[in-house]
Amino acid sequence: MGGLRPWARYRLLTAAHLLALGLGAAVLQALEGPPARRLQAQLRAELAAFQAEYGACLPSGALEELLGTALAAQAHGISSLGNVSEAGNWDLPSALLFTASLLTTTGYGHMAPLSAGGKAFCVVYAALGLPASLALMATLRHCLLPLLGCPVAWVAVRWQLAPARAALLQALGLGLLVAGTFVLLPALLLWGLQGNYSLLGAIYFCFGSLSTIGLGDLLPGRDRDLNPVLYHLGQIALLGYLLLGLLAVLLAAEMFAELPQARALVKLFGASGPLAAEDQGGILGQDELALSTLPPSAAAPDQAPPADR
Fold it and tell me: Can you give the residue ranges of the Potassium channel domain (predicted)?
């Protein structure tokens, strides 16, 4: 692919992306279509049986109207099925979890504002809060990445590893640590504590949360009769898990993105031309990169100009 022009590489990359979208849609259609149709048929059969047994006691269309009202309320996270853990839908723990899912773009979908003022506030709050959250994450990443590199640097010096191999070892180690600490271990705990979760469902929830997909079809404690105190403690624990887990995923993704192999792949689809100094010499430190961009006169301000002869 090195001989292709940049526009040809972009077209190839776009075609591959569209092909992946189509393939994913076809696989999901084949896997999820039959269960959805079976569930729809079961729902229609139960509705017909209910109407046949109790239809004489209900006015025409009353059941459909009641179900429509209940489903519209459920879409905003409000349920009247007797689950006491959801009695206070907008209490402080629930509101904190909602704002965290808003600022992290997770969007579980378990709650949604009803009022026009709430919707307007969410727009303004997200518009101001998302850049602030990104700035905070960037600051924490800048502070934590050098600390995380210390053990690998010690191993690289002790075992005399090449810089590229040491960087790969560091990325793989952090990736495995994040996967075990923030995906596998929470999934095992969720599987053991939540009776209606399978292990695959628990892993699916953890991955969906940390990848900010947040489909909202699974939420711990949502459909169980829990004590309100336990339910709120679970929401606070989920809030902490979401914030710490996203930071860990960001650090791991940053390390993988800075690998020479990843940079070479990105360079493959970039503009053709001579390699920059940082691409030839590896990953530069921030201070070194800043100094390399300064003009010679600014890089050495204390150097006196040569005297005229």
Answer: 87-142, 183-259
Burial 86-112 (b: 16+ CB within 10 A, else e): beeeeeebbeebbebbbbbebebebbe
262 confidence band (pLDDT: 50, 70, 90): confident
Average pLDDT in the 197-208 region? 86
> Taking 50 as the threshold, does the pLDDT of residue 90 lie above it?
yes
Tell me the pLDDT band of 210, cut-offs 50, 70 and 90: confident
Phi-psi region of 307 (alpha: psi -120 to 50; beta: other; left: phi over 0): beta
CA distances from 96 to 3, 60, 99, 111 (A): 53, 43, 5, 12
What string of H, E and C letters represents the secondary structure of 259-292? CHHHHHHHHHCCCCCCCCHHHHHCCCCHHHHHHH
